[in-house]
Specification:
alpha/beta; Rossmann fold; 2 domains; 8-stranded mixed beta sheet; 5-stranded parallel beta sheet; binds ligand PMT
Length: 401
């Protein structure tokens, strides 16, 4: 089952760091996903971004003070803490990290955090030396032991000019971690091998045979499996997609390289999902130098590539094997043929050729075909949703394994 933040109550804590501007984008992303977001800002956060920005985008009053203007104690933070499904502090400064590690509540955000019992995520962001400081590291370790999730800062150029760890991860990555932490871990302990994207078979150094696979379907499967607790190895052909978090990625170019990577990682895999669009043929004798256009016609001899999935079917043992079938006609007949020939448990068949499904699109319309001859047509939906339904079906094959 895909987890979403739709209608979830999320509290976003913002501390005083230059990365506070990125929290605005995080808020927008959360709202776009249908979450109810309330924002608590520290005093120093307000020096970087005005509360009005968060108020306008969240559609909720922003909590900036432990005390109301009339001097009475605000109970807003207690009320919010009771209703929150998740709390994200981004950026989390050394100051809030130190306070939380020691149980100090002396402003709206720190007292709220002490009262919150929901899932809590800290996204540290600060100068590299500050981040590496022993006290900060000690505090983070203590917080992890206390049950906080800590999203490691990214490495790169920091606002202070230094280079190293300390950058707030991109808001998309923070949202990805939130979804991951909220997802039940029904694939915990499973090793999952996923292939994604196209392969490239070179004709000469500057030309190749390939196909329009973007890698989106395979990356969605890999991300969904990681969210559900699997150890994921993703073997990917050339794509422009960002590397998914917490996944081992092996980047390949050709079908032969994909075969090597797959068979090297076969032994420990419990589940293999072959989403990649592998070239069936490669040029027999690729030119060492760029081919010059001297003749009107040239002949290109192609050599058949190994069918990786068919070989996996021969070596199947008790592994779960899932293939994809990209067809332009006779989906059912062709998908069932592949199911039998390659000794698979499930084939996800999709018609390719339309821009709104299959190659390149964020959407896919898939029919699942099973070994026992049954099928399950799915409506067109986001590839993330297809990935989760496919994983649901895989879990149902061996519910107790
Ligand atoms: O990457 P996207 O843009 O998101 O597009 C997704 C997709 C359309 C590529 C995907 O949904 C899909 O259909 N992938 C399978 C494409 C394909 O190569 O299908 P096929 O019918 O040619 O191959 C059948 C199966 O055998 C596939 O699982 C394929 O990985 C595998 N195969 C094929 C040839 C080969 N030499 N070795 C293989 O392992």
């Amino acid at each position: 089952m895909q987890t979403s933040v739709k209608d979830k109550n999320i509290v976003l804590g913002v501390c005083g760091g230059i990365a506070a501007y990125k929290s605005v984008k995080l808020l927008r992303l959360l709202k776009k996903q249908g979450a109810n977001v309330k924002v608590i800002m520290t005093q120093s956060a307000q020096l970087f971004v005005g509360p009005l920005t968060f108020e306008a985008l969240s559609g909720q009053p922003v909590c900036t003070n432990l005390f109301e203007k009339d001097g009475s104690v605000s109970i807003r933070h207690i009320d919010w803490a009771e209703k929150a499904d998740a709390v994200i502090v981004a950026p989390a400064t050394a100051n809030i990290i130190g306070k939380l590690a020691n149980g100090i509540g002396d402003d709206a955000l720190s007292t709220f955090m002490l009262a919150a019992t929901s899932l809590a995520i800290l996204c540290p962001s600060m100068n590299t030396h500050m981040f590496e400081n022993r006290a900060v590291q000690r505090n983070l370790e203590r917080l992890k032991a206390d049950g906080y999730y800590v999203v490691a800062p990214a490495s790169g150029e920091l606002a202070c000019g230094a280079k190293g760890y300390g950058r707030l991860p991109e808001p998309e990555d923070i949202l990805d971690r939130l979804l991951c932490y909220l997802t039940p871990k029904d694939l915990k302990g499973k090793n999952l091998l996923v292939t994604a994207g196209p392969t490239r078979e070179h004709i000469d150094p500057v030309r190749f045979i390939s196909n329009p696979s973007s890698g989106k379907m395979g990356y969605a499967v890999a991300r969904a499996a990681e969210h559900r607790g699997a150890n994921v190895i993703l073997i990917a052909g050339p794509t422009t997609l960002p590397d998914p978090l917490n996944i081992t990625i092996i980047k390949i170019q050709t079908a032969q390289e994909m075969a090597v990577a797959v068979f090297e990682n076969l032994e420990n895999s419990h589940i293999i999902i072959k989403t990649a669009a592998v070239s069936d043929y490669r040029p027999l004798d690729p030119a060492k130098q760029k081919i010059k256009k001297k003749k009107d016609k040239i002949t290109l001899f192609l050599q058949k590539n190994q069918d990786i999935l068919k070989e996996l079917g021969r070596k199947k043992k008790d592994r779960i094997l899932v293939g994809f079938a990209a067809e332009t006609e006779d989906l059912e007949e062709n998908a069932n043929k592949k199911l039998k020939e390659k000794n698979l448990d499930i084939v996800a068949g999709n018609l390719v050729g339309s821009p709104s499904s299959g190659f390149g699109s964020d959407i896919n319309e898939v029919t699942l075909f099973y070994k026992d001859g049954t099928k399950k047509p799915l409506p067109a939906m986001k590839k993330d949703a297809v990935a989760h339904i496919l994983l649901d079906q895989i879990c149902a094959l061996h519910p107790h394994s």
